[in-house]
Amino acid sequence: MAANSPKPTHPFQNGGFERKKPPGLIENAIKNKTSYIQLFFMTGVMLLSMRSLGQKYRISDLEEDISFIRKEEESLSLRMESIKKGLLHEASLDPTGLFISKLRSLFGDGGDSRN
Predict the structure, then answer these.
(1) pLDDT tens-digit readout, 39-90
(2) Does a structural domain hold residue 71?
(3) In a 3-state reduction of DSSP, which class is residue 5?
(4) Does residue 7 lie within any of the structural domains?
């Protein structure tokens, strides 16, 4: 008869504590495998999207830097050319011609008769 007796439905029947242990992480993951796979994929897509957005803003900042650097390079080139012309003009006023020949050799101009 003991084999056919109904199982207790109340947790405190028969003097014992019959609590069901909640499933662990592994059991829950196996049970809801597709949900976890979707969660991992969606998290990956979100992280890639955030990374892509960050790179987009970085590219925009770099393009601004490039245009600023090009303008600065142009300004510096014009300034260097102006200084070079001023120095050559000042040197041409020297009656000995030594200073102008040294400047031309420094600047790489081929106007010197000794080269």
Answers:
(1) 999 999 999 999 999 999 999 999 999 999 999 999 999 999 999 999 988 8
(2) yes
(3) coil
(4) no
For residue 23, the 8-state DSSP code is P
43 located within any domain: yes
Q: Which residue's entry shows tokens 């957005």? A: 53
> Angle at which helices 98-107 and 33-92 pack, to 10 degrees?
160
For tokens 């987009």, what's the residue?
56
Is residue 4 in some structural domain?
A: no
For residue 106, CA distances in Å to 39, 65, 71, 74, 102 come to 68, 32, 26, 22, 6
Q: Token pair for residue 45?
A: 């897509």
User: What is the token pair recorded at 73?
Assistant: 């390079």
- CB atoms near residue 100 (< 10 Å): 20
